[in-house]
């Protein structure tokens, strides 16, 4: 790739990140600016926003995808940071619960906060599916002999339990994390 295209791509990525940062801040604050208002706040033309995101739905999808990827990256790093499966799962559940508590957009997406789904047209379903897919990938790497159905069930159960604990915490985060890890290991027969 030429230097000119590399620089143009870098500038486009920076602009995209800035737009998503502003959109996230506004969403968390409960504001729903129009695309022209968002363009004004970022200092670009409306056409630039429409060219990059295609419209409000495209912007919402990009924002949700970015938040979900960051959320899942933190969970995956926690899983990979431990050699013991139980400790890895405790760390991952704890990371998920902590991240959601610290990130108001994730909290709103997972809990179905009325302002965010109306602004972004989403619910926790895509996040659960993405989390279950990453968890299944992790389990296949560390337990290659585990059957596909057991891996699917453990990964999906962990994702759904984690969201449940986020929406209605039954107690301290650490207890929730150990409960989720216990369920996952029992499903795996360990």
From TrEMBL:
Q: Which InterPro entries match?
A: AlkX_C, Homeodomain-like_sf, HTH_TetR
Has UniProt tagged this entry with the keyword Endoplasmic reticulum? no
Question: What keywords is this UniProt entry annotated with?
Answer: DNA-binding
Q: Which domain of life is it from?
A: Bacteria
Report domain HTH tetR-type positions.
9-71
Q: Which residues bind DNA?
A: 34-53
Q: Which Pfam families match?
A: TetR_C_35, TetR_N
Q: In its UniProt entry, what is this protein called?
A: TetR family transcriptional regulator
Q: Which organism is it from?
A: Pseudonocardia tropica
